[in-house]
Amino acid sequence: MERVARISEIIAASPLGFDDAIKVGFERASKTLRGITGLRVLEQRVSVEAGEIKEYRVRCEVIFVLEG
């Protein structure tokens, strides 16, 4: 059986940390994409206000297998 995968890029954020931002992104992607086989974190950034970190952001690739 042959399989074909696709990759979609997402950006997710959390005030709690990078791990939580990844979970937020995965949970949201899971609502619309079926067959997710993995995530690859491409980039991590933080939003800073008044000298404090306010938000952790991740840019991820979501890998999923196409149905059919």
Describe this structure in words.
The chain is of the alpha+beta class and 68 residues long. The protein has a single domain (5-65), classed as Flavin-binding protein dodecin (Dodecin subunit-like, 2-Layer Sandwich). Helix content is 22%, strand content 56%. It has one helix at 18-32, and strands at 5-14, 36-49, 52-65. It has a three-stranded antiparallel sheet with strand order 1-3-2, covered by helices on one side. Strand 2 and strand 3 form a beta hairpin. The longest helix has 15 residues, at 18-32. The relative contact order is 0.35.
What is the topology?
Blueprint: E1 5-14, H1 18-32, E2 36-49, E3 52-65
Antiparallel strand pairs: 1-3, 2-3
**Distance between the amino and carboxyl termini:** 11 Å
List low-pLDDT spans.
Answer: none
Number of strands: 3
Question: What is the CA-atom radius of gyration, in angstroms?
Answer: 14 Å
CATH hierarchy, class: Alpha Beta
Mean of residue pLDDT values: 96
| Strand arrangement in the largest pleated sheet | 1-3-2
Largest sheet: 3 strands, antiparallel
What CATH architecture do you see? 2-Layer Sandwich
Helix-strand topology string: EHEE
Shape annotation: elongated
Number of domains: 1
Structural class by sheet pairing and helices: alpha+beta
Q: Summed up, what is this model?
A:
Helices cover 22% and strands 56% of the residues. The protein is of the alpha+beta class.
Structural key phrases:
alpha+beta, Dodecin subunit-like, 1 helix, 68 residues, 22% helix, 3 strands
